[in-house]
Design goal:
The chain is of the alpha+beta class and 76 residues long. The protein has a domain of 45 residues. Helix content is 43%, strand content 13%. The protein is built from three helices and two strands. Strands 1-2 form a two-stranded antiparallel ribbon. A hairpin with a 6-residue loop joins strand 1 and strand 2. The longest helix is centred in the middle third of the chain and has 11 residues. The relative contact order is 0.19.
Length: 76
Amino acid sequence: MPPARWEPECVLITRPEMEVRALRIAPGQHAFLAALAMDATLERAAETALVRDAAFDLGTTLLLASEAGAIQELRP
């Protein structure tokens, strides 16, 4: 049975060790990760996320991304 009301969702898809994982994430987390993917600095990505979602939490998002295998390297 389809949902009573369709709503957009943000999803992080990773493939650590060749196993596909899909995690529902908040809009601010999506904005943050998308900004990083476009080579934004950590500060700029966090600002972008806060504009999208005032409840954005940087620490929680970094932990989620790290555990999901979405972060490969950190550069100075």
